Amino acid sequence: MAMDEKKKEALKSLGMILLGGTASAIMQGGGYTGRDFGVGFAARPNGRIWVKEGARNDGGMDGTSIGAMQQLAKEKVSEPLDFNAGVVYVPGAAQNNRMLQRTPENLASFIRQSKQEHNQALEQFFDNPDIPKDRAARLGMKQEKLLPKWWNDKDPRRPVTPSSSCVKRARIGANGDIYVVFGSNPNKEYQYEGNADPVKASKALYDLVTAPSIGRAVNSWKGDWGKRHTYLPKG
Q1: CB 176 within 8 A of CB 196
Q2: Are strands 163-164 and 88-89 parallel, antiparallel or unpaired?
Q3: What is the pLDDT of residue 50?
């Protein structure tokens, strides 16, 4: 049944009251009247009708100092260690770690940031009074991600590829010890003494995965690294 003129006018009036003219503008066609502007109207013929921004999809948190500073506080928290050095296992002839690219940045990516280094990177823009605190926090978080050294990362930030024909995986566990998997026994991890200090633990891993031969270095009886770090009895 066709809507009579009185009902149409009533709907137009209701639309103007409830939606700032949106409903009325739509019923008039295209939202353009040639005289009305603002919410519920278009600025030109067949233009898009202006509606206010809807509900935010981030819970209402905007780019103010509250949001940025909360995120900054989270970035400062040290998570349990679980860092994999990314050893590339190549069965066959001795690799002698030939795939490792020994640039300073690559080598540094095996080392964990100290708490002081981490906080300094995050807060480096706070001394500038012309930069708002929320912006300073965001800039600091971006800059920290550019450091080659890692923080809560699970693997190196640089594309390093230490390689071995003997060792399949080498990682730091939550207790700071070094866990090694050999290609000959891929279902077992061997535990080696690391360090409760995260930075020192990362340096222990560094010494292993940057050795001229990872397999020879990790040997508990003959390797320099293995003799220093093994828990296994030797005889």
Answers
A1: yes
A2: parallel
A3: 81
| Of 57, 27, 23, residue with least CA distance to 40 | 23
181-220: b or e for each residue (b if 16 or more CB lie within 10 Å)? bbbeeeeebbebebbeebeebbbbbbbbbbbebbbbbbeb
126's tokens = 């706070």
The closest of 206, 208, 199, 197 to 230, measured between CA atoms, is 208
Q: Which two tokens stand for residue 192?
A: 């080696």
* Distance separating alpha carbons of residues 92 and 106, to the nearest angstrom: 26
Residue 21 has a pLDDT of 46
pTM: 0.73
Task: Please give the Cα distance from 173 to 205 (Å, whole number).
Answer: 11
* Range 184-190 contact pairs with CB under 8 angstroms and sequence separation of 24 or more: 190/232
Neighbours of 32 (CB within 10 A): 18
> Counting every residue, how long is the chain?
235
Picking from 70, 86, 78, the residue whose alpha carbon sits closest to that of residue 167 is 86
Measured between alpha carbons, how far is 197 from 114 in angstroms, rounded to an integer?
Answer: 10
Cα-Cα-Cα-Cα dihedral sign, residues 123, 129, 134, 135: negative
Of the candidates 85, 100, 96, 83, which has an alpha carbon nearest to the alpha carbon of residue 168? 85
Binned average pLDDT, 10 residues per bin, the chain of 235 residues: 61 50 48 74 83 60 65 94 98 97 96 98 96 94 97 97 98 97 96 97 98 97 95 66
Q: Hey, which bits of 35-133 come out as E strands?
A: 83-84, 88-89
Which two structure tokens, joined as six digits, stand for 3?
A: 């809507």
- Provide the 3-class DSSP secondary structure of residue 97: coil
